[in-house]
Design brief:
Blueprint: E1 2-10, E2 16-25, E3 30-34, H1 41-46, E4 56-61, E5 64-65, H2 74-77, E6 81-84, H3 96-105, H4 111-124, H5 140-152, E7 158-162, H6 170-185, E8 189-193, H7 197-202, E9 206-211, E10 214-219
Parallel strand pairs: 3-8, 3-9, 6-7, 7-8
Antiparallel strand pairs: 1-2, 1-4, 4-5, 9-10
Length: about 230
């Protein structure tokens, strides 16, 4: 599903965030991306949805070489990819239903399909009863659930999560992880950057550790391996 071939990323300030990364992530896998701050984790995952472009090398998602995509083609790519951020990025003037529906409206889904799909994912994340509430009326955990629902409503093949539990208390973090587990069991590939040592060490999946722009560990069922 995801392939990186000899990927380098050097920023204009001279910082090298990826220094020759090679990795393959098969369809349906759940991968944690770990490492100390400034190691290159965020760049690694941002290149998977074209927020950043590699300086050299190839990033391939579902057979599409992102390195060769034109800017106007990026929205089409992102229909295959759901992205969940640490800070939710919800639209404050839209209610829960409308925030999730927005992802389908921009690709011109029919109103009947929008209703059907939004209701299905709100049920999956446990927010059916709060569909008409606005972001400021929700807890942080509920806002993150909305963000997850929005990321999966068009049934993407890949979900990329950047510190999705970073702003949440421990109990809520486990609830969010349970949702990700359910999504993964439906066959969706998940790549999650995280500093949450306890989650990585408890819910075991493949662990890719990045340090100094290099993959220093790639282990199935691995542990966190750093001081959190």
């Amino acid at each position: 599903m995801i392939v990186m071939e000899d990927v380098y990323k050097k920023y204009s300030n001279g910082v090298v965030a990826s220094n020759g990364i090679n990795v393959e992530i098969p369809t349906g896998e759940f991968v944690y991306v770990v490492g100390p701050s400034g190691a290159g984790k965020s760049t690694f995952i941002k290149m998977m949805y074209c927020e950043e472009r590699p300086t050299k090398g190839n990033v391939i998602i579902d057979g599409v070489n992102l390195s060769k995509l034109k800017k106007r083609e990026i929205p089409l790519l992102r229909r295959k990819i759901g992205v969940v951020f640490q800070d939710f990025k919800l639209l404050p003037k839209l209610n829960v239903f409308e925030n999730v529906a927005f992802a389908l409206e921009v690709i011109e889904e029919s109103p009947s399909q929008i209703r059907k799909k939004v209701n299905e994912v709100l049920q999956l994340v446990g927010l059916t009863a709060k569909a008409r509430m606005f972001p400021h009326e929700l807890s942080g955990g509920e806002q993150q659930r909305v963000s997850i629902a929005r990321s999966i409503v068009n049934m993407p093949k890949v979900v990329i999560a950047d510190e999705p539990t970073g702003n949440l208390d421990p109990e809520t973090s486990w609830e969010i992880m349970n949702i990700f587990e359910r999504i993964n069991k439906r066959g969706t590939t998940i790549v999650m950057a995280t500093h949450n040592k306890e989650i990585v060490n408890t819910i075991r999946h493949r662990v890719i550790a990045i340090e100094g722009g290099l993959i220093t560990k790639d282990e199935y069922g691995g542990d966190y391996g750093y001081e959190a």
